[in-house]
Design brief:
heterodimer; A: about 140 residues; mainly alpha; about 75% helix; rod-shaped; B: about 200 residues
Chain lengths: ~140, ~200
């Protein structure tokens, strides 16, 4: 390719860039004049995205302007919160069941040979443990 | 990692352009809004750990992919619509006109003649952009409107740098030809651009 051709090519590229820039500057100016409704919807979308971003990075919610608010927004993690609550309820239930099983029931106290006071007396504990072990 | 404030600023900066670009691609304002909102959410959810300087490329990629998904869905929907329309009369639900749609936010302080000329020019440019082949429009938008360099545009479009140059050149020539045909040479465009 000759030098003249190269120069022509260069000028052509520059012209294309210039024309493109002129067109995009008009497009830019036009893009600034959107309807109120469109802008509102874009703003809503942005807010949702910012909120999701805040939750992703720290589990903290964000205000409308994009600043972070408080940890209380964790409640918006519906799935995490509900799973956590379910697990907590299961664990609590298990603990309660265990503790109930340890407590001697009323029927057991009434049918036992020993008086009920014996089960309260700490001095009887070794004896009771031994007798339960033998059974 | 970008903060939520940085993300908010970034989205505020690109959302209008993104919306217009999507409108030119899908030719439907409602669909364009859905696509842009979807892209915003995907960026926030999937790339929350990325630094803010990576957001322009990531957002454009997500936006272009979301547009492609829309086109795929449209293709399937159109197929079914065509099949079903043969069974009954088509009911074209007319869109409710909302007065908010016609209110422009930034009213120009220039004289009405210039406003009219500019809006007519914009209509011509928009129509010409919509008529461009998808790849040419994509290359033009990324390279010139989003101000990406040739290598970035090529990476985004998944093609060679030579292809990007060809697409851009053809797109600009097509647009210039349409404008020239309407009596809007580059001098007139430059003048309008300077007045904005």
């Amino acid at each position: 390719m000759s030098i003249d051709n190269l120069q022509e090519n260069e000028i052509d590229v520059q012209n294309i860039d210039l024309q493109a820039k002129q067109i995009t500057s008009l497009l830019d100016a036009h893009a600034k004049r959107l309807s109120m409704r469109t802008l509102k919807q874009l703003e809503n979308g942005r807010e949702r995205a910012v909120k999701a971003h805040a939750q992703q990075i720290s589990g903290v919610s964000a205000n409308r302007d994009g600043t972070l608010s408080s940890i209380s927004a964790w409640a918006e993690h519906h799935r995490v919160v509900s799973t956590g609550m379910l697990l907590a309820a299961i664990i609590a239930g298990f603990v309660v069941m265990q503790s109930l099983n340890k407590e001697p029931s009323d029927a057991f106290l009434l049918s036992a040979d020993l008086p009920p006071e014996a089960f309260v007396d700490r001095g009887f504990e070794p004896f009771l443990n031994d007798s339960q072990a033998k059974l | 990692m970008a903060s939520s404030l940085e993300l908010s600023d970034f989205l505020r900066d690109v959302e209008r352009r993104a919306f217009k670009q999507t409108v030119y691609a899908v030719r439907d304002d409602h669909a364009a809004l859905d696509i842009v909102q979807d892209a915003m959410l995907k960026l926030a959810e999937k790339y929350a750990d990325k630094p803010v300087n990576e957001y322009p490329m990531l957002f454009q990629r997500i936006l272009q992919n979301t547009m492609r998904d829309y086109w795929r869905r449209q293709k399937v929907r159109n197929l079914w619509t065509t099949l079903l329309s043969s069974f009954g009369a088509g009911q074209d639900g007319e869109d409710d006109h909302d007065p908010l749609d016609s209110i422009d936010v930034e009213d120009e302080g220039t004289n009405p003649a210039i406003q009219l000329e500019r809006s007519q020019t914009m209509r011509i440019i928009e129509k010409a952009l919509e008529k461009l082949p998808a790849r040419q429009r994509e290359a033009f938008v990324l390279r010139y409107w989003e101000d990406m360099d040739v290598a970035e545009t090529a990476a985004m479009m998944g093609c060679s740098q030579g292809s990007v140059k060809t697409h851009c050149s053809r797109a600009v020539h097509s647009l210039a030809a349409v404008l020239e045909k309407q009596g809007l040479g580059s001098r007139a465009i430059a003048q309008l651009g300077a007045e904005t």
